[in-house]
Amino acid sequence: MGCRRQPRLPMTLTASLCGMDTKSRAFLERVRVTNLSRDGAQIESVKSAVKVGDIVTLRCEDTTRRFRVTWEDAGVEGRRIGLAGVGSVPTIADTCLLPASAPDDYVRPRVSIRRESSRYECEIAVEMRIQDMPTPMWVTANEISESGCRVQVPLAMQSGTDVSIALWLNGERVWMQGKVTHSLYGCGTGIEFTKVERTALLRIADVLASSEIEVSDRRETAVEQSPLCAAFSATS
What we know:
Blueprint: E1 9-20, E2 26-37, E3 40-46, E4 55-60, E5 63-73, E6 79-85, H1 91-94, E7 119-130, E8 137-144, E9 148-152, E10 162-169, E11 172-184, E12 188-195, H2 198-210, E13 214-215
């Protein structure tokens, strides 16, 4: 399943956008629709001062519908905004060439490498101490790199939480300071090392040198997109 809830149809349509701007003044302007789904649209060349959360009305040929602004992006020739439909789909639109409601297979391309250093699979006992918690937490790290590790914690932790952790490396307990970067219940907690002594770095280097299975980064290669359908143009 992709990142979108419904398929989008690429197109070029001229439409009218009306509503109230940030100063409570009515506006009416011509905009360009660049893609459309049964419950949303993306439009360009928006000059009115609308903001995320505003309710606007979009009219295209004989179809009129109310939308909520969900995002905006400034451009050279006016802004682009994303719209989410409010209420049911108009009857006339229900019979046109809009894609049927279904999960979308679009996947956002991954074009940059996220990690600073290679990560390897491991199984290391970890003693974790969190501020305001009187007792330490014993967990297991299943991935490790020179700059961080991922541990299996029985609860979700808030990003940015400072922690003190001790890794049991080759029979020795090595302490370091870290910070939670992300945490998802059942999927592990990522910890970035923020303060590591030289001796600890050497111990980690020994573990990495003996590790065989590298954990791939899903952002190393861009995901090839499959077009939903052939784009078509229309004017009004």
